[in-house]
Design goal:
The complex is a heterodimer of chains A (about 300) and B (about 240).
Chain A lengths: L7 E10 L2 E11 L2 E6 L6 H9 L6 E6 L2 E2 L10 E4 L11 H12 L4 H11 L15 H13 L5 E5 L7 H16 L3 E6 L2 H5 L4 E6 L2 E6 L1 H10 L2 E7 L2 H10 L5 E4 L5 E5 L2 H14 L4 E6 L2 H15 L1
Parallel strand pairs in A: 3-8, 3-9, 6-7, 7-8
Antiparallel strand pairs in A: 1-2, 1-4, 4-5, 9-10, 11-13, 11-14, 12-13
Chain B lengths: L1 H12 L3 H21 L6 H35 L4 H4 L6 H30 L4 H28 L3 H19 L8 H12 L13 H25 L4
Helix pairs in contact in B: 1-5, 2-3, 2-5, 3-5, 3-6, 3-7, 5-6, 5-9, 6-7, 6-8, 6-9, 8-9
Classes of the chains: A alpha/beta (about 300), B mainly alpha (about 240).
């Protein structure tokens, strides 16, 4: 904290839809720089971003941006650029017309230059006069980003901005976002892939099942995840031998065998458990039939971490 | 305002429903031409009144406005592009007003022109009768646009709401029950047409005068526009 007022204050925000809780009691403050909202699909990232942007109301709690409530306060949008997760655009417009429309609606004064600068930033000058329905998914994302930043807002909310981009486009967009953050803007980027935001965000808020599970930089998040015990059920051909082998590797906190003969192990170091399990099984000639995290709220974290590490 | 007006007009005019509308608005003109070329014992005034009241004001105008005005917001809710408009530093009425004007421009104006042209053909170039028809239909188009634009934003079943309003409320209930005629856009429309040209629609049982028609239509336009602004402020945008 630098003592300045945070750009975004989310205070005990919950939002539910027809009895389904999408976001539950989230409180956080976001300051200038690049901040990531990380979590598996369905974690509540988009709902939280939409509540921050004022697109939806909150069931409980408050959101303020630059010290003002955002809901029902359209003048605030002069200072906000929000790129939604939906890739839908006005297909019948050209890329340039689309950015121009957004600039006009934002009341941008130096229209021509602002539009040209935004399109140049996303490196789509050559394709600006093609209709949006002719664009690839990645190009569309980049033109949507140009439309989001055409009015040069100090706050950018980007919901899965790297989705649909190829590796080259992704690197370019990551550079663009990093540069915009370095210029003193507040940028919030959501992603479900840890690897995507590892080199991008100064700070990460991890959401799981609608709740804020952890906050910090990349290392802190990994540490907090590792510090939480995971309960995992392992279905194998020799449960007792496997338990003995894993205990010998010192990667477990506790182990028990349930009524069906499955192993239930508790570990704080899921990465070590992931490494030890196949090697112990191979060494002891044990067949592994199924490995299943039992904590629902952590299952998805487990999955995306595995996916993020593998890609 | 012009940016949203142009955008919405392109959205509405670019859709396939525009062909249906073209077919509908050509019907009164076709009927007028038929009247001129075919033998008939019906007077031109009676035929013009019938086309205006039974064909245009009771069918074509509300149907065309239903198709366009419910889509003014409805299609953007459906394809999730509404966020591009609401995430802008604009008072919400500056989003609603051009949407309303766009549906009148693309739907209401062609119907009003078609009605005026049809009456001019039937009445042998009677400019006053044609102008009265056009102005009345245009005012009715605005009232329908305000009502159905609100419905398109407020409910997913806006078309059903509109059909019930047009074919049950207006065509049956308000046509026969004097007590609820002040809640019928069709009645306002016809009252204005008759009020602007005293020779028109004298065969119909119109309990509203021209002033009442204008005031009624204006109240509908203002009230439903205000409801749409209110809804747009509070809606959860997909």
């Amino acid at each position: 904290m630098n003592g300045a007022q945070p750009t975004i204050v989310v205070d005990s925000v919950s939002r539910w839809f027809a009895g389904v809780v999408a976001v539950s009691g989230v409180s956080l403050e976001i300051e200038p720089g690049v901040t990531a909202l990380l979590g598996p699909n369905g974690a509540g990232k988009t709902t939280l971003l939409r509540a921050i942007a004022g697109l939806i109301g909150t069931s409980q709690g408050k959101v303020s941006i630059f010290g003002e409530p955002v809901r029902g306060n359209p003048s605030l949008y002069r200072r906000i650029g929000y790129m939604t997760e939906h890739e839908s655009v006005y297909d019948f417009l050209t890329g340039r017309q689309f950015v121009d429309l957004n600039a006009r609606l934002q009341g941008v004064e130096d229209l021509e230059n602002a539009v040209a600068r935004a399109i140049e930033t996303v490196d789509l000058v050559g394709a600006q006069h093609r209709r949006l329905h002719e664009y690839s998914r990645g190009m569309r994302q980049r033109m949507r980003l140009a439309a989001t930043l055409v009015h040069d807002p100090p706050l950018l909310l980007l919901d899965e901005p790297l989705s649909g981009t190829d590796p080259v486009q992704r690197l370019h967009l990551q550079d663009v976002i990093r540069d915009l953050g370095a210029q003193g803007r507040t940028i919030v980027v959501s992603s479900h892939i840890l690897e995507e935001i590892d080199q991008l965000a100064d700070r990460i808020h991890l959401m799981v099942s609608g709740k804020l599970a952890a906050s910090g930089d990349y290392r802190a998040i990994r540490q907090q995840l590792n510090d939480r015990p995971f309960l995992v059920r392992i279905d194998s051909s020799k449960a007792r031998e496997l338990a003995a082998g894993l205990l010998a590797m010192e990667v477990l906190e506790s182990v028990e065998i349930d009524r069906e003969g499955h192993l239930r192990v508790r570990s704080r170091d899921v990465a070590a458990l992931q490494r030890a399990l196949p090697s112990v099984a191979a060494r002891l000639d044990i067949r592994l039939f199924r490995v299943e995290p039992l904590d629902d709220s952590l299952e998805s974290v487990f999955e995306y971490l595995a996916t993020g590490s593998a890609t | 305002m012009t940016a949203i007006l142009g955008l919405t007009a392109r959205q509405l005019a670019g859709s396939r429903r525009v062909w249906l509308v073209l077919a509908l608005v050509s019907l009164p003109v076709l009927a007028g031409v038929l009247f001129r070329v075919a033998d008939s014992t019906t007077t031109s005034a009676e035929f013009a009144d019938g086309i205006t009241a039974s064909l245009i004001a009771s069918g074509i105008l509300p149907l065309v406005m239903l198709l366009f005005a419910t889509s003014a917001f409805g299609s953007e809710l459906g394809d999730r592009t509404l966020s591009y408009l609401v995430l802008k530093p604009l008072p919400r009425w500056r989003i609603v007003a051009p949407k309303l004007f766009a549906s009148v421009l693309v739907g209401g104006l062609p119907v009003a022109l078609s009605g005026a042209l049809a009456v001019a053909i039937i009445e042998n170039g009677n400019a006053r009768a044609a102008a009265a028809t056009g102005v009345g239909l245009l005012l009715g188009a605005f009232a329908y646009a305000a009502t159905f634009t609100w419905a398109g934003l407020a409910t997913r079943h806006a078309l059903i709401f509109g059909l019930i309003y047009v074919f049950i409320w207006e065509a049956v209930l308000a046509a026969y029950l004097d007590g609820i005629r002040f809640l019928s856009v069709r009645q306002f429309t016809l009252a204005v047409v008759a009020g602007l040209n005293s020779e028109r629609l004298d065969t119909l049982d119109l309990s509203l005068g021209a002033s009442a028609g204008v005031v009624g239509a204006c109240i509908v336009i203002v009230a439903f526009s205000a409801l749409t602004v209110r809804k747009l402020t509070r809606i959860d945008v997909p």
